[in-house]
Amino acid sequence: MTAVDDNPYRIQVSVETEYLADQSDEENQRWVFAYHIRIHNRGDMTARLLTRHWVITDGEERTREVHGEGVVGEQPSIAPGQEFQYSSGAVLETEVGTMHGSYQMLAEDGTCFDADIPAFTLAVPRALH
């Protein structure tokens, strides 16, 4: 899943997911997923990622929100044409769920803006038909 933010700073966020069967425990309703993020600056000025906001919804429509500084302990500055990649994970109580959110960014001209993270699905293989 990929989204290009429609503001003039043009931050593109791409997401790939994977199910981690070896860390999951179906009997205890624990399904573990990794997600791999690529943040590409397609704009004309450097932007720094300040905070993240995630909305995580499981297959029973239970939603939780996560707010925090940076990503994986960093607040990366991403120059025009450059990208930053990282991986993280989520634990669900169902075998299918979704995530979406945003990053608050600070452009080198002092403008704060949000870069949207597209909605993506977390699913055990063959759970969706």
Can you give a write-up of this model?
The protein has 129 residues and is mainly β. It has a single domain (2-123), classed as Sandwich (Immunoglobulin-like), CATH 2.60.40. Helices cover 0% and strands 60% of the residues. The protein is built from no helices and nine strands. The strands form two sheets. Strands 4, 5, 6, 8 and 9 form a five-stranded antiparallel beta sheet that branches. It has a four-stranded antiparallel beta sheet with strand order 1-2-3-7, with no helix packed on it. It starts with a strand and ends in a 6-residue tail after the last strand. The model has no long low-confidence stretch (mean pLDDT 93).
Helix-strand layout with pairing:
Blueprint: E1 2-4, E2 11-19, E3 31-41, E4 47-58, E5 63-69, E6 77-78, E7 83-92, E8 96-107, E9 112-123
Antiparallel strand pairs: 1-2, 2-3, 3-7, 4-5, 4-6, 4-8, 8-9
Largest sheet features: 5 strands, antiparallel
Helix content: under 10%
Sheet-strand content, in percent, reads over 45%
> Which CATH first-tier class would you pick?
Mainly Beta
User: What is the overall silhouette?
Assistant: elongated
- Count of distinct structural domains: 1
The CATH topology corresponds to: Immunoglobulin-like
Q: Could you tell me how far the N terminus lies from the C terminus, measured between alpha carbons in angstroms?
A: 19 Å
| Overall pLDDT level | 93
